[in-house]
Amino acid sequence: MNRITSLFQIKYPLIQAGMIWCSGWELAAAVSNAGGLGLIGSGSMYPDILKLHIQKCKKATDKPFGVNVPLLYPNIEEHIKTIIEEKIPIVFTSAGNPKTWTNILKAEGIKVVHVVSNVKFALKCVEAGVDAIVAEGFEAGGHNGREETTTLCLIPMVRKAVDIPLIAAGGIGTGAAMAAMFCLGADGVQVGSRFVATHESSAHQNFKNRVTETIDGDTILTLKELTPVRLIKNDFYRQLEAAYTVGAGKEKLAEILGRGRAKKGMFEGDLAEGELEIGQVSGLINEIISASSVVEEMIAEYNASIQMLKQL
Fold first, then answer.
1. pTM surpassing 0.90?
2. Are the CB atoms for 26 and 200 separated by under 8 Å?
3. Could you tell me the domains of the chain?
4. CA distances for 236 relative to 223, 251, 271, 276, 290, angstroms
5. Across residues 225-229, what is the average pLDDT?
6. Alpha carbon 289 to chain centroid, angstroms
7. 90, 65 in Cβ contact below 8 A?
8. 45 and 53 in contact (C-beta within 8 Å)?
């Protein structure tokens, strides 16, 4: 056991990211049953829907699972109440100040992990008393750090600055990448994009298929004036690109973005006008498989990579 498997009482130090519109109870349960840690992505759920997903996940697995909570979520008090009532053992927080809810959750015996994209906020996490940190690099899909620090650079920087358990994220979709992160000082990895293209993902089939067709250069980090997000280039992105060329400001960009873009793209399958959030590692994903197969393949490749390194 290492620090992450011990902290979460799981078999492998592999966490499935709690992604909006993709990480429902079915995916979380499948990953937990396979020996990783599954997370329900609460950011796209109304409070009653989150409760339903938690209850279904409990029936589908007897292994630990958690909930990811974006701290900017408008009904966060209701989400926190549900998490405490349902006795969720692990919460991953993101997009906000870790001090806001950490003590409240820890007082209920809940393990708290916070997602950061730089050393400054990693240190703030330690001050807030979190149990572990996810350091997420520029390669990651969805909402991302403004600093554009790659995972390769970010992990050793954060490791040098903090002593608590460290989970690497961003650009990790293979066992070889997982092994690399351990070499850089991580205690575990968080994987998002690879789990989008699985049978159990709640993403629309159109979006899953598009992910498998993506090649290098097909994704881009944009909308830094609002909230930075990495997405697949499509008609919606080209509208943004055109707006940037004529010097559009925050108000115009917000107008183009509108409401419900991510739902339209990832959950409803509108590949032209939706926001298609995915990481750079999508260029390595060419088939839709089961979540358990993702875990098995990554762990097998991780072990092979470690053996190869030993022989050097």
1. yes
2. yes
3. 3-202+285-311 (3.20.20.70), 214-281 (no CATH)
4. 12, 17, 9, 9, 30
5. 91
6. 19
7. yes
8. yes
